[in-house]
Design a protein that fits this description.
Structural class: mainly alpha
Region (Disordered): 1-25
Strand content: under 5%
Number of helices: 3
Radius of gyration: 20 Å
Distance between the termini: 65 Å
Number of strands: 0
Length: 88
């Protein structure tokens, strides 16, 4: 055994522990989830570059309105497909 420092093994087969309690629902997390659902765009909100890209889109009002309309349409379609939502 080497005496130069602690040796730690990483067990890649260990199951991941889920966070306890209610899942986080912050605006950035919700927006990122909505952007991931869009098929027409490859937008996400995970890095500063992604945020800068969204800011540029927001400065162009027609592009921003088109993005918001697409997110709304995708969310409404998902809600209508979800039997647990209580809507048919």
């Amino acid at each position: 055994m080497k005496s130069g420092g602690a040796q730690h093994e990483i067990n890649t087969n260990a199951p991941l522990k889920r966070a306890r309690g209610r899942p986080q629902r912050t605006l950035p997390i919700t927006l990122n989830n909505d952007l991931k659902k869009l098929v027409a765009t490859k937008l996400e909100l995970t890095t500063q570059t992604d945020l800068d890209t969204l800011r540029l889109i927001a400065e162009d009002r027609p592009k921003w309105n088109a993005l918001v309309a697409e997110i709304r349409k995708t969310a409404e379609a998902a809600r209508s497909d979800d039997p647990a939502s209580g809507r048919l």
